[in-house]
Write a structure and sequence with these properties.
With 528 residues, the protein is mainly alpha-helical. The protein has 2 domains: 1-67, CD2-Gal4 (Irregular); 184-525, no CATH class. The chain contains 21 helices and 4 strands. It has a two-stranded antiparallel ribbon with strand order 1-4. The chain has a two-stranded antiparallel sheet with strand order 2-3. It is extended, with a radius of gyration of 30 Å. The model is unreliable at 78-136, 147-174, 381-389, 392-396, 492-497 and 510-528 (pLDDT under 50).
């Protein structure tokens, strides 16, 4: 067979397109002619090779002989073994039509995605004042991170295009089925993950108030409103989804899916969302938090921007940013107003940075204080309640991460996004090519130095106030570095990037802690 293949030459060979265009003689063998190989050109000589039927018939005869040999060797072997070839008269069974038998191109997400821009870190003076791309906000930082070949999820690098062929962002995870209230122990595990991975940054309720609703949902669900039921199911859905890497909660994934709890919650949302109230803002905040972690393939179409803008607009309409008319409200109600406003602020400001938009509200217009821990955010209030013994008995092991960091990630995030706001309104100003900067260069450099100092100070606080093995520690450090990357992005508005700073960000992001962010998704990984 080897001799046959060595002597198997084309019956007809037409010149490649490059030689034909230059009107020169095309000499050589496929896949590239001599001239194209010499000049490093792309040669299409293989497309112009022709064989007669008599030549192909020789190959077909050899193939049939080999198939006959394989068939004879297959007889008597284990029937479960996969054959290497099938003779023409062999019937293809259903077992042979498995998905593994279909050839798939080894495509990856990197091959499916489009680059937003290219980061230039050279000190070439020719870059000064030149427009280098349309990437705005943290989309530029995303392009910077992409060049380091980081993956958001552990298993994305093993996926191909066929894995996303049936993806529908309307149904998020591709399911329309609903799930009833899970067993109490499963619901409590989901709540545990929610409190440890979401609540410290986005506190959309007071702990005591929600736990009372959570308990009532299991004891007397008919007494709850649609809003209360929505809150319980959304928290379970988010917690269940955030805890997917935990071995304990993963045991229940065959029976329960996060999307099914979300679908159940959404049915209650449809009955209550028409009212513009604090309840509806609370509902939309949970919806936004759900989508931030599940719509990972549809996050660049502006939906998050519009939803975030609506959240902060509704919060302003409800006057949650003001301190008036608070005299007759309880401590819990006042604290809830603070938390709902600042959660809306964080979600909206994050989208503002991502899409390079203008600010909706500035810090000097905000009168309400920052979120804070109150008595009803601890387990102390359970000490006198006998029917809460299940929580009381496990309070030392329940909410491990939350009991250590409380609302510190939220407070640090507010400071970080305040710095982002200054950056967007001074140094980083999106504008068209050729237009004149609003600020002179000295003023821009002054703001740039001040912002650098603020980010450095915040990084010191992150180091000292959060456990280094905590998820929020790494998230906030990376968000701070993203601010520095945006600050040093070369553009017509401010100087060339600081090469040393960008290299330091590169070094940090390549260190092992970056991998912790996506593996430490369960409280048993949080070591304090």
């Amino acid at each position: 067979m080897e001799t046959l293949l060595n002597n198997f030459t084309p019956d007809s060979l037409r010149p490649c397109s490059n030689c034909k265009k230059k009107k020169v003689k095309c000499v050589g063998t496929a896949p590239s002619c001599t001239r194209c190989k010499k000049y490093g050109l792309s040669c299409d000589l293989s497309d112009n090779v022709l064989y007669s039927y008599s030549s192909i018939e020789t190959i077909i005869t050899q193939i049939k002989e080999l198939e006959a040999i394989l068939e004879s060797k297959r007889v008597g072997s284990n029937s479960n073994l996969t054959t290497l070839g099938l003779p023409n008269n062999t019937e293809v069974t259903d077992e042979s039509k498995t998905p593994e038998s279909v050839h798939k191109e080894p495509e990856t997400l990197d091959e499916l995605s489009d680059e937003v821009g290219t980061l230039t870190t050279s000190g070439n003076d020719d870059l000064q004042g030149k427009y280098i791309g349309a990437a705005t906000g943290s989309n530029f930082a995303k392009a910077f991170l992409k060049q380091m070949h980081l993956q958001k999820l552990d298993d994305l690098s093993n996926m191909s295009s066929s894995d996303f062929s049936g993806y529908d962002h309307v149904t998020s995870l591709g399911s329309t089925s609903c799930s009833p209230l899970p067993p109490y122990n499963v619901g409590k595990m989901s709540l545990n993950f929610y409190m440890d991975t979401v609540h410290p940054c986005y506190p959309v309720f007071v702990l005591k108030d929600f736990l009372e609703v959570f308990e009532t949902c299991y004891k007397s669900p008919q007494s709850l409103t649609y809003h209360d039921k929505y809150m319980v199911f959304m928290v379970i859905a988010i917690g269940f989804e955030r805890g997917e890497k935990d071995c304990e909660i993963a045991k229940h994934y065959n029976q329960y899916k996060p999307i099914e709890f979300y679908n159940t919650a959404f049915r209650y949302l449809e009955k209550t969302i028409t009212n513009r109230s604090i309840d509806s803002l609370q509902e939309l905040l949970l919806l936004m938090i759900w989508k931030l972690n599940t719509d990972v393939f549809k996050d660049d179409y502006g939906d998050f921007w519009y939803m975030g803008r609506y959240l902060i607009a509704l919060a302003i309409e409800l006057e949650l940013h003001l301190t008036k008319n608070l005299e007759n409200l309880s401590e819990n109600k006042i604290e809830l107003r603070k938390r709902l406003f600042w959660s809306s602020f964080l979600l909206e400001r994050g989208n503002t940075v991502k899409y390079g938009r203008g600010l909706t509200i500035r810090m000097h217009n905000i009168e309400i204080g920052r979120p804070s821990m109150i008595k009803d955010d601890t387990f102390e209030f359970y000490a006198t309640i006998d029917d809460r013994s299940d929580f009381v008995g496990t309070r030392n092991s329940f909410f491990k991460n939350y009991n250590v960091i409380h609302l510190t990630p939220c407070l640090l995030s507010i400071e970080l996004y305040e710095i982002y706001g200054v950056l967007l309104e001074t140094v980083y100003i999106s504008r068209t090519k050729g237009s004149t900067p609003r600020l002179d260069m000295n003023t821009i450099i002054g703001y740039k130095t001040e912002i650098e100092r603020s980010i450095s100070s915040l990084l010191i606080r992150i180091e000292s106030e959060l456990p280094h093995t905590c998820l929020f520690y790494h998230e906030l450090k990376i968000k701070s570095y993203i601010g520095s990357i945006i600050l040093h992005r070369p553009s017509p508005s401010f100087p060339n990037p600081n090469d040393d700073l960008l290299m330091r960000k590169n070094v940090y992001l390549k260190l092992p802690p970056i991998q912790i962010i996506y593996s430490m998704m369960s409280p048993h990984h949080f070591k304090t």
